[in-house]
Amino acid sequence: MHNFKKTAAYALSTLAAGAMMTVNAFAESGSSSSGQQQSAGSTATALIFQIGPLVLILLLFYFILLRPQQKREKEAQAMREAVAVGDEVCTAGGIVGIVLKVEEDTVVLETGAERNRIRIKKWAIHENITQIEAQQAAERERKAARQRGIATSAADTDSKKKKDD
Fold it and tell me: In CATH, which of 2.30.30, 3.40.50, 2.40.10, 3.30.1280 is domain 83-165?
């Protein structure tokens, strides 16, 4: 997470430096041609054509990298805030345990057969296994209901055809 922000900041600063160099080169090329006078409209058009690709790169960078990362962070934060007593969670270090106590920024887990208790920070929770299993069960139920719906609708159409004959 921290490395991603450093990388993003470095990429943005590199792009900004490139844009500044492009603008400076454009200004120097315009001032060095003493015999030819360019109109204000053609100068603005040339500037747009030089800076336009940089703006597009920044937009693509945002929509491909930054926006999905922010969405994942929000989902992870919501999952951590929804942790409740009795949930089975897995930490970033791979420790699996059952939540015994939830405090403001810490959680007490019970792990192993010896019932060891560990106090961890909420940010260290990687996934809520109970929540994932509930989502999978709901998905299986939706699929089963869909299959039952297809089967009953097919049976209804068959019985209607037999009555018509």
Answer: 2.30.30
DSSP 3-state of 22: helix
CA distances from 52 to 19, 47, 49, 55, 75 (A): 10, 8, 5, 5, 34
Tallying the residues shown for the chain, one arrives at 165
The answer to whether 17 touches 9, Cβ cutoff 8 Å, is no
State the pLDDT confidence band at 17, using cuts at 50, 70 and 90: low
Confidence of residue 103 (pLDDT cuts 50, 70, 90): very high
- List strand residue ranges (DSSP E) for 33-158, in order: 88-91, 96-102, 106-111, 116-121, 125-128
As beta bridge partners, residue 134 has none
